Amino acid sequence: MQPSPPVFSHRALDLKHGRIEMAHGAGGRLSAQLVQEIFLPAFEPGEGAAHGRGAQGDDAAALPFPQAGEKLVLATDAHVVSPLFFPGGDIGALAVHGTINDVAMLGARPLYLTASFILEEGLPLSVLARIAASMGKAAREANVPIVAGDTKIVERGKGDGVFISTTGAGAQPPGIAPSGACARPGDAILLSGEIGLHGLAVLSQREGFQFQSELVSDSAALHTLVAAMLAAAPGIHVLRDPTRGGLGNTLNEIAQQSGVGMILDESAIPIPGAVAAACEILGLDPLYIANEGKLIALCAEEDAAPLLNVMRAHPLGRDSARIGTVLADPRGFIRMQTRLGGERMVDWLFGEQLPRIC
Amino acid sequence: MQPSPPVFSHRALDLKHGRIEMAHGAGGRLSAQLVQEIFLPAFEPGEGAAHGRGAQGDDAAALPFPQAGEKLVLATDAHVVSPLFFPGGDIGALAVHGTINDVAMLGARPLYLTASFILEEGLPLSVLARIAASMGKAAREANVPIVAGDTKIVERGKGDGVFISTTGAGAQPPGIAPSGACARPGDAILLSGEIGLHGLAVLSQREGFQFQSELVSDSAALHTLVAAMLAAAPGIHVLRDPTRGGLGNTLNEIAQQSGVGMILDESAIPIPGAVAAACEILGLDPLYIANEGKLIALCAEEDAAPLLNVMRAHPLGRDSARIGTVLADPRGFIRMQTRLGGERMVDWLFGEQLPRIC
Fold first, then answer.
1. Is residue A182 helix, strand or coil?
2. Does the beta-carbon distance from A75 to B53 stay under 8 Å?
């Protein structure tokens, strides 16, 4: 139904010079303005997207759930990346991609997103509008609409511009159930492309490093790549995106969940020259740098070759490679054959390598 | 399956004296410790709860969705209440109740919750553990499990202790579709109890007011009340919880969504003596104070009496009352007959009455 016209005339938000005030969070007319003049236009779903009711003003959205027998997949992420804009992306697109990917890693079709914002008093409305536009664009490109949202405001010095928490809902077909707990000795370990770009792009932007121009975040939604992979090999054991903690921690998580070891081949892991150079200068290990557009797949040996073919045929998997093999090892050790012919342990990252990269 | 034992021994978190460090957010072993030693034990679902897979270490949860033909309802909320603990609740229980209520207001059975945390460096782990325990307790009492989560850390001075974003998923049965857009002239306006308690409880705790002992938040999960109401009157037109912006703004939102007016009877609106007194002293209007355990129902005249009976028979609706009637008025004006026999407009709250009350 058509919304009734506003009852009292009021000025539109000044998207050029205006700033977030505490009153934008009070639930009154200014809160409604923020939704109507920034979020709703930015999040307008594309043609053919599934349609929710959230945009009409209720506090929740009622949505079709596609098919009997499918499981509901839920994933949630808080995003606190600093700076808000970086080569290859921004906090808005990142929030959309990150959550779509978490849903896709369970083999599910992402259907809907929700977004909750925590804004700092004084934030320029132009910055918020730019982030919202980027989120909306990323959601439309992925064909996963943002169906519900919420905004809260905190005082200056109690936040940091914009934090965004996104939740994704998806549908997992019967018989599809990849999980970090399903790795088996003998599995092939596949990686969908070059590592290290996202974390170093954010870091370089933050610190103003010289080499920042070559480092562009790989932030991307991987659900169409996953769909192609599952069509070729529905029995993929594990899918995981190596975000925070990078490839090194992600493989350790899988090893611990499944109670297996792994052997990696360093020379097979695609590392861009700019990443290797930046890591050398900064004393960082590319294995622990966050990625936002890459995935790891563990599968039975016979699925490895067909999967690699499918992955390399997809624009987001062109540089896919087999990087190792799962071993029987209840200690969960991950060993790596180095380029120089030696062997080293790939341990958990204990502390912190890069703060606030997602 | 059983998780494998940790590969390297490490000290348990010091829940008494420890504090959040940036490294707890880096996705390494310290991040895993936070999940395993604080969140998972706190969020252990109760007996008989629906069961997800998120707890086993994947980045998402795959969950049964109950019944063909039901719609998926999604609602999300950011919570930034200050202080974190207040009479009658805390940010953790509030986050659970608030999101369950948003799902319930679409007539849906809440099924699952996700929780994402943004923690400030330096936060005492004891505070986080207390909040997580309260969330877990609230979720178990409501029988709505927390199935997926995420945690990010921001530097000291870039956050404010704990922010929590919760998302709720529920199932809306066929034929049930209350919405703020469904109010019709002649509808009865019902309110489930006394207003003003939550906002003033938070404010009093924050400011250290004398009268704080009498003001206890009404924070509560309303889904069982809603279920009883829908069993008695499946055709309820509108359900809404008057949180931020209070009764006044919530009724204005409904009036605008539906293109109707309303007439209220001030003497019928239950306002506790302590709320009236505190509002008098502070110059606040109880109509705009946030509630976290109350709902408004708009229904056809013939449903009003049976609904009030059901509401008053429920522990969370004992003081339910009919407070007004919907009028045909495309301008969306809300008028109130005052106790003194006059009439006044109940307008939108334009700016801010109380910051950070949820």
1. coil
2. no
Tokens of A94: 């990142």
**Which residues of chain B does A291 touch, with a Cβ-Cβ cutoff of 8 Å?**
none
Task: Classify burial at B309, counting beta carbons within 10 Å of its beta carbon; exposed 0-12, middle 13-18, buried 19 or more.
Answer: exposed
What pTM, to 2 d.p., does this model score? 0.93
As given in the structure block, the two tokens for residue A316 are 């987001």
Give contacts of B347 with chain A, Cβ < 8 Å.
8
Binary contact (A256, B74; C-beta < 8 A): no
CA-to-CA separations, B90 to B138, B168, B197, in angstroms, rounded = 11, 19, 14
Which DSSP state fits A281?
Answer: H
In 3D, which of B321, B90, B317, B353 has the Cα closest to residue B201?
B90
Q: Provide the residue count of chain B.
A: 358
Tokens 């000025």, located at residue? A11
Residue B121 with chain A: CB contacts under 8 Å:
none
Angle between helices B223-232 and B91-104 (to 10 degrees): 20
Rounded to 5 degrees, what angle do the CA atoms A193, A328, A185 make?
50
ipTM: 0.93
Q: Looking at this protein, which amino acid is placed at residue B315?
A: P
User: Which of A158, A167, A181 minimises the CB distance to B167?
Assistant: A167
Kindly determine whether residue B80 and residue A352, on different chains, have CB atoms separated by under 8 Å.
Answer: no
Alpha carbons within 13 A on the beta-carbon side of B296 = 31
Q: Which residues of A touch B116 (CB under 8 A)?
A: 76-78, 165, 167
Q: B4 and A249: CB-CB below 8 Å? A: no
pLDDT tens string for chain A (358 positions)? Answer: 333 334 444 688 999 999 999 989 887 788 888 989 999 999 988 654 444 434 356 778 888 787 778 899 999 999 999 999 999 999 999 999 999 999 999 999 999 999 999 999 999 999 999 999 999 999 999 999 999 999 999 999 999 999 999 999 999 999 999 999 999 999 999 999 999 999 999 999 998 887 666 899 999 999 999 999 999 999 999 999 999 999 999 999 999 999 999 999 999 999 999 999 999 999 999 999 999 999 999 999 999 999 999 999 999 999 999 999 999 999 999 999 999 999 999 998 866 678 899 9
Residue A90 has phi, psi (to 5 degrees) of -160, 170
- Residues of chain A neighbouring B62 (CB-CB closer than 8 A): 71-73, 106, 108, 172, 177
Cβ-proximal residues to B305 (8 Å cutoff; 6+ apart), any chain: none
Is B72's CB within 8 Å of A332's CB?
no
**How is residue A307 annotated by DSSP?**
H
Q: List the single best residue of B97, B167, B238, B327 to mutate versus A (max A Cβ within 10 A).
A: B167
CB-CB neighbors (< 8 A) of B161 in chain A: none
Phi, psi of A130 (to 5 degrees): -65, -40
8-state DSSP, B299: E
Burial A2-30 (b: 16+ CB within 10 A, else e): eebeebeeeeebeeeebebbbbbbbbbbb
* Contacts across the A-B interface (CB distance below 8 Å): 340
Does the distance separating the beta carbons of A62 and B177 come in below 8 Å? yes
Chain B residues closer than 8 Å to A348 by CB = 7-8, 28-29, 32
C-alpha span between A67 and A221 (Å, rounded):
23
Residue B354 identity: L
Give bridge partners of residue A75 from the DSSP assignment.
A168
* Inter-residue contact B79 to B165 (CB < 8 Å): yes
CB contact under 8 Å between B163 and A118, yes or no, is yes
DSSP letter at B45 equals P
Q: Choose among A129, A100, A132, A102: nearest CA to A113.
A: A100
Query: Which of B27, B241, B245 faces A249 most closely, judged by CB atoms?
Result: B27
Q: Which chain B residue's Cα is nearest to A28?
A: B349
Nearest CA in chain A to B333: A7
